Model the fold of this input.
Amino acid sequence: MVEGAEDHPRSSIPKEELPVPATHTQSYATSKSIFEHNRKYIPGGVMSLPRRTEPELAFEKAKGAFMWDADGNRYLDYHAAFGPTVLGHNDHYVNVAVERTLKAGLDLCGSGTNTLEGRLAELMCTNIEVCEMVQILNTGTEATMSALRLARGITGRDHIIVMQGGFNGSHNDVACNVLTPIELIGPRVSPGEYKYIPLGSGVPLAHQQLVHIVNFNDLDSVKYVCKRYPIAALITEPILQNIGIIKPLPGYLQGLRELADKYGFLLIFDEVKTGFRHSLGGYSKISGVRPDLAVFAKAMANGYVISCLVGKRELMQCIADADPTKRPFVAGTYNGHPLSLSAAIATIERLLEGNGEIYERLNRLGEQIQAGIEDILRACGITGVVARQGSAFCIYFMDHEPRDWHDLASNHDFARDRNMRQKMIQRGIYFFPVETKQCSISAAHTEADIELTLGMLDQCLHS
Ligand SMILES: Cc1ncc(COP(=O)(O)O)c(C=O)c1O
Done:
């Protein structure tokens, strides 16, 4: 328990910052002018292009379940900064831990080790089954890049398998085939593979030829690729969470495990989004399927910059192999920054409290919103389903939960999805305004917040 944290109720907003009743003016003039200014100096006006949305908003502060834009509009947030803020924004307990490290004077010495990194590593290894050893990094991209490099080093093979509709970061191996129009990908093939469609320019063709894209939930296509190429690793989100919530069919993850053992590739779970959000041990804990390596980030430190690569001891130890020809190069100036380490330790302590009661609460809130949305869809006569894992959910305007990107892209009503999100934002509920992006509930949300959301959704879908 961090000193000074006791005098504040943990998951709620300090009294002096309690939000005023919704005052959504729908004026975005200040946001607009901030964007205009920033566009002069920043390509696109924003530091990560996926954050550029319609309406263009500049945010000023966030606390608990809420965010405020530069015009003073308040939003009940379901975006969660693309996933990290599982405890809610600016969690007091986490902030106190960070402040304490700041005050203690430990900054980035960039030499040797410290007790904080050992403490976090021990916390992870004792609480996360898949984590026998841990390498701390900064971003999800670095973590998946290092995982694939480690897998190539260990197996001596170059080819990898990634999922159509999965996202694993922005490096050359994986910056492809997310939300890609079916016209570019072509019709479903199974068993078979798809062409690498880069998310942008600059990916060498030679590199693309090492990457094999298959549909999620399709074991036959994994076999097809393994018979043709020497595969070092298959990397997948255990639930596809960059196109909503696409869950593995029963037996799919176990099937991947068996194929990995049969063909000698490493199974890597990208738990950047699923990890810490659905359980401390990620989705591998929930599914009972053990990957060889896994990567975590986002909710690991409730929004502070950190990621990690974890896995089986004999594999992880290669990172420090005495023989330099056997160890992949994994290093970084900012690895294990003390402020991020403190935030991660505090976040994990919070998530461990009461034997995981936060997850039970998050799941109850998830059930509440799912049941409410399903009622509204029925009452409005709209074809739709709610796909959900714990606190993360997505409304698909189609008659079944999609099993892969082809299914989703061919059946989902994207126009209705876009329209719903725009209307929710106008009513002060921040459903990220890009189709199929999942919503995430935080521990700072309340039952009343969920009811408010349902009331607004009812208005949006009726109008
Ligand atoms: C599943 C998954 N893996 C990797 C990444 C890349 O993480 P980062 O943006 O921290 O590089 C993301 C980012 O959204 C992600 O969702």
Q: What stands out?
A: Residues 154 and 303 are 32 Å apart (CA to CA). Residues 82, 139-141, 144, 167-169, 237, 242, 270, 272-273, 297 surround pyridoxal-5'-phosphate (CB under 6 Å). The first strand starts at residue 59 and ends at 63.
